[in-house]
Specification:
With 55 residues, this protein is mainly beta. It has one domain. It has 1 helix and 4 strands. The protein has a two-stranded antiparallel ribbon. A two-stranded antiparallel sheet has the order 3-4. The chain is flat, with a radius of gyration of 16 Å.
Length: 55
């Protein structure tokens, strides 16, 4: 899956944290840092299915 890392000091050091989406099959869609203290992250599940007619 992927890696989720966290910083609490403006990016000087980073720590791996557990990625709950890896356990449950979710997807990290987007991560957008605003500044050294605010980051927006969007995650979720892709429930779209590919339906095909089978004979």
């Amino acid at each position: 899956m992927g890696v989720v890392i966290k910083t609490t000091n403006g990016g000087n050091t980073w720590v791996n944290i557990p990625n709950p989406s890896a356990q449950y099959g979710g997807l990290m869609w987007s991560i957008q840092p605003v500044d050294s203290e605010v980051v927006y992250a969007v995650a979720g599940y892709d429930h779209h299915e590919n339906f095909r007619r089978r004979q």
